[in-house]
């Protein structure tokens, strides 16, 4: 199989094309009820993945590969239109369309028209997110191919953006801010993230320079929407890694979205060095119900239940590492087990009031509760072999270690906010008020002991050295009060300006925080370029994660972290290689004068809560993408970055930050097989340069060691049996299904051992060694995705 996959990969690098010739060309104009041309209207040939947008005159051209098809016209703020066309033979068709305003969505038009240009956000292609081969199965996998995001763990939904920690990222679902578990230390314990790809209608991501309307974090924003679908539908997905079901029910005054997901990573985790009995089980249930109370009022309910259960009975481990001259091998026999349980449940209610078509007010209230439990009681006895070559005798050392944890954390989060958007001629004015209360009840009891190799055999137990010992109980409640206002203003036909200001106060640091932000965008008359400049202050108020130190003690006097950001970017569309390409670039610089330093332990962030540092991050992101093969989007990006920090009064000067990954490269390439275009190929390539890391035995931050570069290649093959490229289609499938797709995925195609963390051991000479903990190896996945016929 490996040889076959490599052969296909070589073919892919040739950018081969095999696309069927279109049969029908459709042209026309799209206008509103007053006869005014509508631009940026999306025109789609349903079932063929053909799409385009109207130009400034409302004109469009699109092709169909069949003589019987349906066109769909969509634009925010207008009712979608479906037009069925039937032709006897190939040729040209003229189809003009008049779209009518949907008052319930008009406020989105106002915001979108200005903020598409006045935004540092990247719109995410949802088709890519669904087709991309991913071990985790989480939506966040697509983020790791975007500019500014550092990849280093395929199992985790957490990500680092432009040198920041995992805790510096905002995630919104329908304007509701989502939080993550605190106790997770190893990515293999992670389950399903909050975002359900099957329910998504739109998603955008900002790696920095985001608007004042978003919350107080330092690094990034992911903003996703579950909106009203065009029609009722249902879909089922089943594979070796899990199951999923989603349904969308639409009525004239309401709609209901439901999604159920189940994931089991047993097959993936068995490819790691630690051998044993893995029992991971992850479940997620979501629903969104929206009801239009009247033409001006609507009520929306978002509910979620997420459960993750992980059990491991380790048996043995064998890890080989070192260099060509010095070969090292660690063999471990285990006793004990690990049991983890993470459960989260909550709901959010949104009341939307539209007194006028250009004015919308939203009241959003949410409550979420998360219970996290860790129970680890594992002992290991190891044999450590060192071979310096044929001229040197082989050395062996023995030893042992113990890991114990009995941790419980309950967190509750309640928030309520009021936000509004209103248009005044060339202005879109937005404001918001928010109150949030967070309660934490934390019971920490953990320790780990490691024996310097050989000393147990000599009965010198006092030579144990201690990695970590925590025995505390913490209770904490924090209240946050925030407000924002911003104005998006059309300076001229080609220039937009956005000014924003956030204000905040919290009961922990008792600081009054002001964060001004600016974004300027210029689009030349040719409409192929956008120049952007942003500057702003970003302040992240202290939270439970950052104030808890290595020993579990809380620094109740910690101040908000602060960053001064500036960036300049260019988006440029041009024609080349037979297609329309889009090139994006951005230069950025961040100076942080109040920074809480931290160390990384797999995906667990350990803060030096009593310390304060200054720091800086600067870099450049470049991205280019387009349809190298018609209807299949591919893109390539490269990012360069340097991130450093200086702990006050430590005398060491500037050191690399834990997320200082100097080079990142990613590619997502799609193609069709030359002789069978109904078969698609999806390939993801990730490279992240080495990361600094220090010994966990040190109670200070250091960067004197590093994790090797992260390199990964995943590939997937899929076929939709109802694709228009299929010459013969099953009548049974066409009758009951709109899509019937089978896929085969090969994860980590080249079987590269990527390091995620280290086990630190000493030999008889008291020399410390970092034994790598590797991520997943090569694995095969088979998946079937079925979408049932849509009902009108």
Largest sheet, strands/sense/barrel: 22 strands, antiparallel, barrel
Output mean pLDDT.
86
* Strand segment tally: 44
Structural class: mainly beta
Uncertain segments are 1-21, 104-115, 455-466
Q: How far is the N terminus from the C terminus?
A: 44 Å
Backbone shape = globular
Q: Could you tell me the radius of gyration in angstroms?
A: 27 Å
Q: State the helix count.
A: 6
Tell me the β content: over 45%
Give the % helix. under 10%
Explain this structure to me?
The protein is mostly beta strands and 792 residues long. A hairpin with a 2-residue loop joins strand 29 and strand 30 (579-595). The longest helix has 12 residues, at 2-13. The chain starts with a helix and ends with a strand. Residues 1-21, 104-115 and 455-466 have low confidence and may be disordered. The strands form eight sheets. It has a 22-stranded antiparallel barrel. The protein has a five-stranded mixed beta sheet with strand order 9-14-15-12-13, with no helix packed on it. Strands 1, 4, 7 and 8 form a four-stranded mixed beta sheet that branches. The protein is built from six helices and 44 strands. It is globular.
Topology of this structure?
Elements: H1 2-13, E1 24-31, E2 42-45, E3 50-53, E4 59-64, E5 68-74, E6 81-86, E7 91-94, E8 97-98, H2 106-115, E9 121-123, H3 126-131, E10 149-150, E11 160-161, E12 169-173, E13 176-177, E14 202-206, E15 220-225, E16 233-239, E17 242-251, E18 254-263, H4 266-269, E19 274-292, E20 297-322, E21 327-356, E22 359-387, E23 395-424, E24 427-451, E25 464-490, E26 495-506, E27 512-522, E28 529-540, H5 544-547, E29 561-576, E30 579-595, E31 598-601, E32 604-607, E33 613-629, E34 632-647, E35 655-656, E36 663-672, E37 679-688, E38 691-693, E39 705-707, E40 710-720, H6 731-736, E41 737-747, E42 755-762, E43 768-774, E44 779-788
Parallel strand pairs: 1-7, 1-8, 12-15
Antiparallel strand pairs: 1-4, 2-3, 2-5, 5-6, 9-14, 10-11, 12-13, 14-15, 16-17, 16-44, 17-18, 18-19, 19-20, 20-21, 21-22, 22-23, 23-24, 24-25, 25-26, 26-27, 27-28, 28-29, 29-30, 30-33, 31-32, 33-34, 34-35, 34-36, 36-37, 37-40, 38-39, 40-41, 41-44, 42-43
């Amino acid at each position: 199989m490996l040889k076959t996959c490599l052969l296909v990969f070589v073919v892919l690098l040739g950018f081969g094309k095999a696309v069927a010739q279109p049969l029908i060309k459709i042209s026309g104009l799209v206008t509103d009820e007053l006869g005014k041309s509508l631009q940026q209207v999306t025109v789609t040939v349903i079932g063929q993945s053909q799409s385009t947008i109207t130009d400034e005159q409302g004109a469009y051209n699109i092709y169909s590969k069949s003589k019987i098809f349906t066109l769909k016209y969509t634009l925010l703020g207008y009712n979608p239109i479906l037009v069925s066309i039937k032709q006897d033979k190939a040729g040209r068709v003229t189809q003009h369309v008049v779209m009518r305003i949907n008052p319930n969505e008009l406020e989105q038009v106002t915001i979108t028209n200005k903020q598409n240009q006045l935004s540092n956000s990247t719109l995410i292609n949802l088709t890519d997110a669904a087709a991309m081969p991913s071990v985790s199965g989480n939506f966040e996998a697509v983020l790791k191919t975007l500019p500014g995001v550092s990849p280093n763990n395929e199992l985790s939904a957490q990500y680092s953006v432009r040198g920041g920690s995992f805790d510096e990222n905002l995630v919104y679902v329908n304007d509701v801010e989502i939080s993550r578990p605190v106790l997770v230390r190893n990515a293999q314990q992670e389950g399903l993230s909050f975002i359900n790809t099957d329910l998504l209608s739109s998603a955008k991501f900002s790696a920095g320079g985001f608007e004042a309307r978003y919350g107080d974090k330092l690094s990034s924003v992911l903003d996703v929407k579950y909106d009203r679908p065009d029609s009722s539908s249902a879909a089922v997905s089943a594979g070796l890694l899990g199951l999923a079901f989603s349904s969308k029910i639409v009525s004239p005054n309401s709609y209901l979205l439901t999604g159920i997901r189940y994931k089991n990573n047993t097959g993936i985790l068995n490819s790691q060095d630690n051998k044993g009995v893995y029992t991971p089980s992850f479940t997620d249930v979501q629903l969104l119900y929206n009801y239009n109370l009247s033409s001006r009022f609507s009520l929306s309910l978002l509910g979620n239940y997420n459960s993750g259960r992980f059990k491991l009975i380790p048996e043995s481990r064998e890890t080989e590492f070192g260099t060509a001259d010095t070969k090292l091998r660690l063999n471990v026999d285990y006793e004990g087990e690990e049991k983890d349980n993470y459960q989260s449940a909550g709901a959010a209610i949104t009341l939307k009031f539209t007194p006028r078509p250009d004015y919308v007010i939203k009241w959003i209230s949410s409550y979420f509760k998360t219970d996290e439990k860790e129970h680890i009681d594992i002992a290991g006895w190891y044999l450590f072999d060192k071979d310096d070559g044929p001229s040197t005798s082989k050395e062996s050392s023995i030893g042992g270690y113990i890991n114990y944890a009995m941790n419980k954390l309950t967190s509750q989060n309640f928030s309520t906010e009021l936000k509004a958007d209103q248009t005044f001629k060339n202005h879109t004015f937005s404001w918001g008020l928010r109150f949030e209360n967070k309660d934490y009840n934390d019971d920490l009891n953990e320790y780990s002991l490691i024996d310097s190799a050989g000393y147990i055999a000599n009965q010198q137990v006092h030579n144990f050295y201690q990695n970590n010992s925590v025995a505390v109980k913490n209770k904490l409640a924090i209240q946050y009060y925030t407000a924002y206002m911003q104005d998006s203003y059309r300076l001229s036909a080609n220039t937009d300006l956005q000014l924003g200001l956030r204000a905040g106060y919290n009961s922990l640091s008792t600081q009054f925080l002001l964060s001004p932000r600016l974004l300027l965008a210029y689009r030349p008359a040719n409409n192929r370029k956008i120049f952007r400049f942003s500057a702003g202050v970003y302040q992240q108020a202290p939270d439970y994660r950052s104030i808890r130190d290595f020993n579990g003690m809380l620094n109740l006097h910690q101040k908000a972290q602060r960053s001064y950001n500036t960036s300049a970017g260019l988006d440029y569309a041009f024609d080349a290689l037979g297609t329309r390409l889009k090139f994006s670039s951005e230069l950025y610089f961040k100076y942080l004068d109040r920074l809480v330093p931290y160390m990384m332990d797999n995906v667990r962030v350990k803060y030096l809560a009593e310390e304060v540092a200054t720091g800086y991050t600067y870099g450049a992101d470049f991205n280019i993408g387009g349809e190298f093969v018609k209807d299949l989007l591919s893109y390539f990006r490269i990012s360069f970055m340097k991130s450093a920090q200086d702990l006050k009064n430590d005398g060491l000067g500037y050191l690399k930050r834990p997320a200082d990954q100097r080079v990142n490269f990613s590619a997502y390439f799609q193609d069709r097989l030359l002789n069978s275009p109904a078969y698609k190929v999806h390939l993801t390539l990730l490279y992240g340069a080495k990361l600094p890391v220090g010994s966990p035995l040190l109670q200070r931050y250091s960067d004197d060691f590093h994790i090797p570069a992260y390199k990964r290649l995943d590939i997937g093959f899929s076929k939709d049996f109802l694709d228009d490229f299929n010459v013969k289609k099953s009548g049974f499938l066409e009758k009951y299904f709109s899509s019937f797709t089978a896929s085969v995925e090969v994860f980590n195609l080249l079987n590269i051992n990527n390091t995620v963390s280290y086990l630190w051991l000493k030999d008889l000479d008291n020399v410390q060694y970092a034994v790598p903990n590797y991520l997943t190896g090569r694995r095969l996945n088979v998946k079937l995705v079925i979408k049932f016929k849509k009902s009108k």
